[in-house]
Design goal:
Structural class: alpha/beta
Radius of gyration: 16 Å
Helix content: 25-40%
Largest sheet: 4 strands, mixed
Distance between the termini: 19 Å
Order of helices and strands: EEHEEEEHEEHHEEH
Number of helices: 5
Number of strands: 10
Strand content: 15-25%
Length: 174
């Protein structure tokens, strides 16, 4: 709900998506009614215990895209995310953060999300977020952020806000 230039991040994302495709279906997963945004449907997830649950299990299907609501997306990033085809799973982000995941094969994505969740609950990995799904999918070690293929680097001002410091860093740049 951070505002930049009078528009919330999530409202801006919904607007950009509809500018690219006025018929696109946008679902915002949140129990918080403040996330009821014009142009989107708010869905209350059945399971929201871990951060990885942002990939609302009951909504995972073929040909779906997860965009992170705490991200300032450039227009070019939204265009790339919506236009680049995924063969199976495709991740978008920068060196620090994944900001979107495009899923062609819902069952494959669900398998990696479940694997990461299980490993975390068993105490075998320390975090349970999108990076671990990427690492699982790419068969990479879980102890380092390493980018290989199936990852589109966005070098255009697209960035996520995980803390007040992230937001302050952005406003200092502007």
């Amino acid at each position: 709900l951070i505002e930049i230039d009078g528009e919330t991040l999530i409202g801006r994302t919904v607007r950009l998506l509809h500018e690219g495709d006025e018929n696109c279906q946008v679902i915002i997963t949140s129990h918080d009614p403040r996330y009821s945004i014009p142009g989107a449907v708010r869905y209350e997830p059945l399971n929201k215990h871990l951060e990885i649950d942002r990939f609302t299990e009951e909504l995972i299907e073929d040909d779906i895209c997860f965009l992170y609501g705490d991200t300032f997306y450039s227009e070019d990033a939204i265009h790339a995310i919506t236009e680049i085809e995924a063969e199976d799973i495709l991740f978008f982000g920068n060196q620090r953060s994944i900001v979107a995941i495009k899923v062609k094969d819902g069952e494959l994505f669900r398998m990696h999300v479940s694997k990461v969740r299980k490993l975390f609950l068993e105490g075998k990995i320390e975090k349970c977020i999108g990076w671990q799904v990427y690492q699982s999918f790419m068969n990479l070690p879980f102890d380092e952020k390493k980018i290989q293929n199936k990852y589109i680097l966005l070098k255009d001002g697209t960035e996520d806000f995980n803390s007040p410091e992230d937001y302050n860093r952005r406003t200092e740049k502007v």
